[in-house]
């Protein structure tokens, strides 16, 4: 049955759209247009609007408090503390607190913005014709006028409580990300400046695990040592040896160019950090004739006969030297820690 066969009295009443189109017997599917606008309670009742304003402000304030809680949890809660959360089970207290506070902070900003838009900003729908991508001056002027009108209808300038609490919440939330930068590594304190070496500790051969005597180190040989009292069974051995690793070379005293190196040596035996000062690779390649050691990672080259100074490559400074002596029992012994922090340079160095 066609639309012409339908009695006209059974057709729905004609409705006009935003541009005057109406549904008739000839065209029953015409665009019905936008429904009539219905005012919200906040549009006609200022007290209701103020209640909505307070709700939004409360959400923004709650976001700020959650951000402060995130920072407090990050600083105060230990990493190894766990709590029981039903039905998950035992989880990290720090992770739980960080996730909860950051989630609340972000949710409250979003919920506050949505509630603001749904209850206080203008909700009148406008139909507009499509226009070319390149707008005409009239369209540009209309857009600017619409933007100004939208700014006024958003009550952004008039409702200072909303504006100020929103700015506060948005200003605090990025602090959560700033605090997470701390996870790039623990604060080193003085750990980078100290190693396991100290006065009176004997030099232990890393291969034989026996104390070293001067006669154990031959001229032109390279020997690796570690501090007395350190064992591979220690839970933090790798962490400690990464800073305390030592290489020992015996030179003829007349071949030592640097006076400090000569004073800090024992019977021509010089001791330097094994850790490259570029990116911390272990140095292990020794040239007997030139007294140079080469880092295998980026070819930084150091002269052990001249204070461990850099003669080639990207390393920024000389290898730290360990002052040694021969003790009463005839063993090589450290007279303190390295002359300066071992490994790569960092901004606090010096």
Task: Explain briefly what this protein structure is.
The chain has helices spanning 41-44, 46-76, 93-119, 137-153, 160-180, 237-244, 259-263, and strands at 82-85, 89-92, 203-205, 222-227, 246-250, 269-273, 285-287, 292-294, 301-303, 309-312, 321-326, 332-338.
In N-to-C order, the SSE pattern is: HHEEHHHEEHEHEEEEEEE
Q: What about the largest sheet?
A: 6 strands, antiparallel
Q: How is the largest sheet built, in terms of strand order?
A: 3-4-5-6-11-12
Global shape: elongated
Helix/sheet category: alpha+beta
The portion of residues assigned to helices is 25-40%
Q: Any idea of the CATH class of the largest domain?
A: Mainly Beta
Please mark out the parts with pLDDT under 50 across 5 or more consecutive residues, or reply none: 1-20
CATH superfamily of the largest domain: Rieske [2Fe-2S] iron-sulphur domain
Distance, first to last CA? 95 Å
Number of helices: 7
The overall number of domains is: 2
Strands, total number: 12
Strand content: 15-25%
On the 0 to 100 scale, the average pLDDT is: 84
**CATH architecture assignment of the largest domain:** 3-layer Sandwich
CATH fold-level name of the largest domain = Rieske Iron-sulfur Protein
Radius of gyration equals 38 Å
What can you see in these coordinates?
This protein has seven helices and twelve strands. Strands 3-4-5-6-11-12 form a six-stranded antiparallel sheet. Strands 7-8-9-10 form a four-stranded antiparallel sheet, with no helix packed on it. Strands 1-2 form a two-stranded antiparallel ribbon. The chain is α+β, with helices and mostly antiparallel strands and 350 residues long.
């Amino acid at each position: 049955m066609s639309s012409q066969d339908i009695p006209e009295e059974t057709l729905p009443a004609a409705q006009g759209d935003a541009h005057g189109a109406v549904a008739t017997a000839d065209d029953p599917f015409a665009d019905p247009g936008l429904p009539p606008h219905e005012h919200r309670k906040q549009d006609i009742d200022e007290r209701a609007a103020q209640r909505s304003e307070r709700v939004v402000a409360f959400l923004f304030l709650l976001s700020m408090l959650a951000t402060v809680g995130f920072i407090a949890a990050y600083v105060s809660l230990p990493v190894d503390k766990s709590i029981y959360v039903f039905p998950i089970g035992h989880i990290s207290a720090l992770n739980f607190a960080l996730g909860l506070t950051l989630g609340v902070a972000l949710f409250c900003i979003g919920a506050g913005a949505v509630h603001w838009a749904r209850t206080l900003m203008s909700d009148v729908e406008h139909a507009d014709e499509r226009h070319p991508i390149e707008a005409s001056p009239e369209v540009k002027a209309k857009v600017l006028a619409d933007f100004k009108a939208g700014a006024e209808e958003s009550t952004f300038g008039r409702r200072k409580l909303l504006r100020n609490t929103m700015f506060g919440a948005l200003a605090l939330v990025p602090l959560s990300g700033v605090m997470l930068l701390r996870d790039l590594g623990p604060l080193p304190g003085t750990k980078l400046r100290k190693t396991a070496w100290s006065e009176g500790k004997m030099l232990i051969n890393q291969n034989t695990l026996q104390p070293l005597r001067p006669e154990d180190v031959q001229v032109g040989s390279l020997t690796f040592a570690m501090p007395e009292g350190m064992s591979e069974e220690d839970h933090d051995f790798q962490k400690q040896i990464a800073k305390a690793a030592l290489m020992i070379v015996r030179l003829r005293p007349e071949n030592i160019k640097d006076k400090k190196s000569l004073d800090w040596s024992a019977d021509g035996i010089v001791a330097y950090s094994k850790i490259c000062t570029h990116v911390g690779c272990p140095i292990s390649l020794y040239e007997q004739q030139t007294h140079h050691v080469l880092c295998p990672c980026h070819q930084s080259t150091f002269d052990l006969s001249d204070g461990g100074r850099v003669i080639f490559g990207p390393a920024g400074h000389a290898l730290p030297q360990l002052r040694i002596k021969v003790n009463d029992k005839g063993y090589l012994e450290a007279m303190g820690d390295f002359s300066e922090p071992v490994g790569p340079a960092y901004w606090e160095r010096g």
